Amino acid sequence: MRIYSRLIFLFFLLSCSSGNEDDSASNDPNTVQKRGCPGDVTDSIPSGNNDVLIWAEEFDEEGSPCSHNWIFEGGNNNGWGNNEQQYYKRNDPDNVIIEDGILKITLIKEKYNGYNYTSTRMTTFNKFDFKYGKIEVRAKLPQGRGTWPAIWMLGKDYTNVGWPACGEIDIMEHKGSEPGLIHGSLHTPSSHGDTTNTEIVSVDDVSTQFHDYEVIWTEEKIQFLVDDKLYYTYSPTNKNSSNWPYDDNFFIILNIAMGGNFGGSIDPNFSQSSMEIDYIRVYQ
Q: pTM, whole model, 2 decimals?
């Protein structure tokens, strides 16, 4: 996401609650489609060619997302540095649920703790992180002016170096006011907030059909793809801590924001809409 003044980010990470854990799910790497929790694929040996699955969240466990994989951040946190209008509940089934093998994060127009919208923000911080590889997220996006769904990653060392020094990889961002325009962006010390390290691709039916949002990350470059089609490559020639904070582990974040500096004006007739995620897979 775009402009981040996350001075109390750590507080929320440490204080958040999580859902019910079910460790009975199969962990057989040969039956990934049947696995739900945990996400680690046992005995996987990365090849370095991004063709070995090392982690997968298939959302096969009905109900609350698995606490082995996810924690939840709560509140509004002063608009999360972006003047966002939503309040994040922590693992409320009205806002986040797994049904029929699909994770549904729902943004709802409702009054709650002084705000007019509720949503979910979930992260794998201290649950799962990785350095280099391919991440693939199959998702269907919410509708409505003002909606701001995001699938993104932050450097695990955020708590030590802060943002933007930790780096940020926005795998997918979407403005409900501009249906079908997918943003892939990077935030670094040399370019953050309204970053220049970004590209837009037009994708049909983002709110009615599932699409694969992907990033391939190596020590040389970061590539953004939709449905295996490359649309942006970031590869600074002279890499340094200012333009390349991408040599440490990163964790995954899923959320829907409302309004704010990126989401923009809100449709007054908006009632609710969901981001649906079929799976998240990481290869190395």
A: 0.88
